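Let us practice reading a record.
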Amino acid sequence: MNSLGFHEGEQEVQRRAGLSDEAARLEGMLMPPNLDGGLTLFLAKRTLAALTARDRAGRLWTSLVRGEPGFLEAHGSTLVVHTAPRAEDPLHEMPPGQTAGLLTIDFAIRRRVRVNGLLTRSAPDALHLEADQAFGNCPAYIQQRSLTADATGGTGTVGAHQAPGLVLTAEDEKVIREADTFFLGTTHPSRGTDTSHKGGNPGFVRIEDGTIWWPDYAGNNLFNSLGNISANPAAALLFIDFNTGRLIQLSGMAEIEWVTPGSPGDDGGTGRRVRFHPQQARTSWTPLGADSVALSPHNPEVDA
């Protein structure tokens, strides 16, 4: 991989959005990282992360990984994840030698960090990621919540369904329509894989004719996710129901839609949205919940 500079997909989206100059000022964030110092301390205190990679069949997924503080251990450019996706997860026993993107987040303080790089080891008890990129993001659109480990859901796998033109179940649709948070996984053919956090007021994620779409709110102007989608449509979504601990993982294809700014559904007025076409789905539970939520003051009002 070569992380120096923006790739062609990012440049195309930045140009079309009219934000190339703003993005250029932040290009230094993409330099090869050193995880020592503040990043090491932040990573060491986290208890969960969202991880994007390909399964043994080559399909892209985003999975939840959890552990006690210290399960994310960083030294130099290497991040060791002292756990791995569970047996029922599509990324269980994912092959090494591929790119992967990890995002860890602290909802309580509204802070997140992304670490992208090469997965050099994939074992039942540990993953090793040789970082090519690592940077934080602003707190915008992060809903403030204190997580607990006592969600009311069960354990184990609910099921997996897959088919061309996949139809989401009623339970899936309810969780997605009411979500204020989800994670998006994308990848570039030669520049690596990324996991990003997406947040908004409940209802900002829409379901229409078997597809899922959401407006793209103003961000840091790097367009890591949209840039990857511009170059490669493979994408993955992870939804967490913080009331029950229900997880929904979706793998499929995504596309960018450019619309008239301020048109119906363009909540943030950027004129951009992402439409996701699910092809495979997995549902499971994790003992994870939250007692309350404070919505981000940055969230645009949802235009029904």
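A brief commentary: Helices lie at 8-17, 20-24, 38-44, 170-178, 224-231.
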